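User: Here's a chain of 74 residues. Predict its fold as tokens.
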Amino acid sequence: MKIPQQAAKEIQELSRSESLKKDMDILRYQRHNPFIKNGEVDINAYIEFVTQFNEFINHKPKPFKPIIDKVMIL
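Assistant: Prediction complete.
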């Protein structure tokens, strides 16, 4: 998909806008990650979310199957 020349020019001009940069900074500092509590990842919150999401989309959980491998190199 190709952007028309006029639209590309407008985007370039907007990217130099000081007010847009300030607005983006405000959004970045006010962003909230629900899985981070006190600066650390809250595993329980993540598992609770995934469990409820799977229930919402009616996804049957797969039965647990342990990984049996003697050499696991990352």
